[in-house]
Write a structure and sequence with these properties.
This protein is α/β, with parallel strands linked by helices. The chain folds into two domains: 235 residues, Glutaconate Coenzyme A-transferase; 231 residues, Glutaconate Coenzyme A-transferase (3-Layer(aba) Sandwich). 17% of the residues lie in helices and 25% in strands. Strands 16-15-19-24-30-31-32-33 form an eight-stranded mixed β-sheet. The N and C termini lie far apart (53 Å).
Amino acid sequence: MKYETPPRVDGRVPVLSAPDAINYIKDESTLCILGAGGGILEATALITALAERYQQTGTPRNLSLISPTGLGDRAERGISPLAQEGLVKWALCGHWGQSPRISELAEQNKIVAYNYPQGVLTQTLRAAAAHQPGILSDIGIGTFVDPRQQGGKLNALTKEDLIKLVEIDNKEYLYYKAIAPDVAFIRATTCDSEGYATFEDEVMYLDALAIAQAVHNNGGLVIMQVQKRVKKATLHPKAVRIPGYLVDIVVVDPDQTQLYGGAPVNRFISGDFTLDDGAQPPLPLTQRKLVARRALFEMRKGAVGNVGVGIADGIGLVAREEGCADDFVLTVETGPVGGITSQGVAFGANVNTRAILDMTSQFDFYHGGGLDVCYLSFAEVDSHGNVGVHKFNGKIMGTGGFIDISATSKKIVFCGTLTAGSLKTEVGDGKLTIRQEGRVKKFIRELPEITFNGKIALERGLDVRYITERAVFTLKEDGLHLVEIAPGVDLQKDVLDNMDFLPVISPDLKLMDERLFIDAAMGFVLPDATH
């Protein structure tokens, strides 16, 4: 769809209010929105103006929505305000769960709904910028995005195949169609009068450039929200991430904040200040810390790893308590390299970060097998070692970067609890005590849909572990092997009776290290890498 953009005067990019900018959006447009959880790079003023305009006028209608990264707060923010029948008819997202109102439309079959792996989706936007029809990748083979399974379709309303299986030189690949967006909502901190933009107060860059290029090169409309505007050509060229010729409209929001509900900018998160390591109090000894501690045992000196959102995200803090955090590098798929990993909805808002890459390049590194180890949370595991996270109890969460990361990491460490739903445990005195068992078994016989394929991982020579608060498993050709059990736990009553299948019990079954269960520094020494 070709857009007539507002004219520039003397090279100056038009500056409009958010409602006036929204007036340019046509019915049936494809809108791509930049941003991540917790308000990271979210153009909130634009999203709010679009939602309000539709409420008041019923236009624009029937938009197609592309969201590479999960915006929102797992409630009413992010793209949840756009969850109005008739406003959005179609959506392709990397992650869905941060904006659950949109997910509900998909669950109710009210919109067409697709899920690409987050890294693949950002790469298809880069492809759209280059007028390429799509990308070829082996990321996603054997999972729910494989057309031999669900093909990335999230509900019965979704019919068109966007993903195809192809074979080149006797190797299977997935072809992911690139969808060219017509309109972009992006955000930066500062722009000059010609639209050149910098991100000095932002948490990261995500794929702002890829989105802007994709929309611009396909004749669309790029609307950029910023916090302030300065004189032409006064920004340092090395700080500029968006060249002005990509931008059609600027909306200045002086109240723009770095994250939801906070000060305009936290200088530790923006990378301007370095947090004293001693300022971080130790994590309380809970089942969450217990899992993170045991996960740290899988790390090696000099390794490059990824940590995902959820129970695994405490590993960096545990490593700092043990004095070994500087002996390896943890990355986040959205771009941060090193530092102290944040927790919660603003995941990725790290402090003491060593570098920040654009998200598309970060995923290039992941897809090529650059990761030595990854730490990912799981929702369900089946008897074949398959893992499910994108759908759980009928709720659409989406894969995020889970498929991209787990497809090629040399060691994959899945973290979680053995059961869920009101599980209560006590950790201390060298043992685990289960005060109240969870209502829901997470180790089930067969997954209905697969986000991680255990068989494919073994074929690729990957090392797969599953760490819970009471048991540790490894994946072999004949299924899950139980290799460790927590002190204080009964094998039959507390482990096997809470699984829907019987794992192979290792003849060398060991107790988990007692230090994990004592509320003091473990004195853990990071092992050297083995090559």
